[in-house]
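Our consortium's second objective concerns turning raw sequence data into structural hypotheses that experimental partners can test. To show how far this objective has progressed, the report includes one record in full. It was chosen at random from the queue rather than selected for favorable results. The single chain below, 445 residues long, was entered without modification.
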Amino acid sequence: MDKTKQNMLYFYVGIKSTNGLTVKLLFLLHSPTKANHLLHAIIVMALQAFHGSACCFHSHLHSSSSSTTASSPFPASRRFPSCPSTRKSLKLNCSSSGNNGDQDYLLDAPVSVGDGFSFSGGKYSDGPGPSDEWFKQGKMVKAYSIPGTGEKAKDPVFGLAMGAGSQATGDRFRWFCVESGSADNPSVILIHGFPSQAYSYRKVLPVLSKDYHAIAFDWLGFGFSDKPQPRYGFDYTLDEYVSSLKSLIDELAVTKVSLVVQGYFSPVVVKYASIHQEKLSNLILLNPPLTAQHAKLPPTLSIFSNFLLGEIFSQDPLRASDKALTSCGPYKMKEEDAMVYRRPYLTSGSSGFALNAISRNMKKDLKRYVEDMHTILRDNNWKVQTTICWGQRDRWLSYDGVEDFCKDSNHKLIEVPRAGHHVQEDCGEEVGQLICGIIGKRNKI
């Protein structure tokens, strides 16, 4: 390829309120669209932080060039003017200039537009990336009716229309699902944790496909599934996740199913299972929060629920995907896998808004849900065959108390010595074999 120039934006923001409080932020960005998104988000959060006090806003965008063999996704001459420091109203309307003239931007870009490039293999590329290949393997399944009036989502501060990624679609939400194996075989539904994607089961699916009909899906707010703006059809509460899970499972499986769930979404699945025990053949929990010590999000995740910082960090692909997946165990992510996890955060701000909302609700309700799960799994009326698989190198959830819980509740415990919190990421093929062994043995009984 011909050598071209790659723009890199150094983004300095200074915010000063009338009461003298000053916030200075420095960002290094690869994407002009992301710069616009972040610029607008900071304005929103600054005004919220100052609770209506008058603010002066200043920003500076600088461009530097470096040689690269990948084709440039945007003109090298592209620049972004600073927003005016004073306005008569709160209707801030930042714009970018390029060859196509001035172009207003929404709070987040439509997924179809994205950032104007495909971020693949560590380089900017116009060609398909690993996430595109993964998307081709799946399909969209409509489930869970969208409540409300159908009003288009708007920014709560400025009232600006939001991009397609933050809008509810049709009368039911779209869930991204990947299937493997014959539909005539017993069904196994693989449910990812928080925060993750169905992609985490990519190594498990082929193992199960030989004898089972395996299905992995993205929760609402994750991966390729819908990510509506909170308060416009879905608020990302744990109660809503229980209800929406029922709707999805009813669409995916007519007969009984086996459920496999990992991490902090385990209490949600157990709550669903307690109401619909007749629907389940087996329940397999991968590193679930079982004890009172587990009922609090680790700092890596709780940061997304914090005021101001949470709203900024939830828009950062490296924090929302890379750090969340690699800080909890021995998993060393390959670049091609990282590309898939980053993709939702690179293409639209909707993923970050959803992550922020989910984190807030997890922080508020996780303790109650963990306590409920603890009670349900120890109850004499619990009839679902349950197995707990535990990655011994989990840096988020302590192993203390896990053995005692399984012994007291009469549930089988299987240890996975080389795995961390995201067991299916660390030891995908091994987890697939374990699932086959657990379900196959009980199907013969």
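The partners drew two points from this record. The mean pLDDT is 76. The radius of gyration is 23 Å. Both points have been shared with the crystallography group to help prioritize constructs.
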